[in-house]
Amino acid sequence: ILPAFCNEDGLPIVGVDVSNCIGRSAGESCSVLCAGSFEGDPATFVCGNDGTFTGEIQCQESTCAVETLPDGFETDCEQTPPGGSCFVRCPQGYQPAQAMYICTTNAEFLGVPPTCELQLCSSVGLPETVGVDTLACVEGIQSGQSCEVGCSYGFEGDSSTYRCVQGVFEGAPPTCHRKACEA
Predict the structure, then answer these.
(1) Do residues 25 and 4 lie in contact, with contact meaning Cβ atoms separated by under 8 Å?
(2) Of 13, 70, 114, 154, which one is least surrounded by beta carbons within 10 A?
(3) What is the pLDDT of residue 183?
(4) What is the pTM (predicted TM-score) of this model?
(5) Mean pLDDT taken over the chain
(6) Distances from the Cα of 166 to the Cαs of 87, 124, 156, 169, in angstroms?
(7) Separation CA 10–CA 20 (nearest Å)
(8) DSSP label at residue 139
């Protein structure tokens, strides 16, 4: 005696729509589709004489396109599935800030980018040599900006330019030497 209908044995259960296969009898075929956040080509399954289905379908979980994120940010959003979340961060040279983005069911990210402010340089990297004047570099120099380091009063020599790179000054110290006393 052949079973009247196939049971769900042999049908995939994750990421697929098998509703077209319900109530199939031996020898009948049905179409199985990728569903939800899964993508792939539909496949045909056949109800066998033993009451189980045979067939194969390849469904891959879809991910949001990183191209839908704003440009110029660092992110950990690669491979984020619909319904998942990830973070977008300000790039190096800016004060640390981040914002959460949600991957929508239409495979696009939804969120508001963080507000990124250029990182201010501290005195790290400036010369601390006697006779060197760093006053022009003390306040308000942001990442990417430059300032002049010169010689202090009573000293002479060539000044040099320092550049603020990710919160730290880079440059070569000026050559300053004490002025000779006039006789």
Answers:
(1) yes
(2) 13
(3) 67
(4) 0.57
(5) 90
(6) 21, 11, 30, 8
(7) 14
(8) S
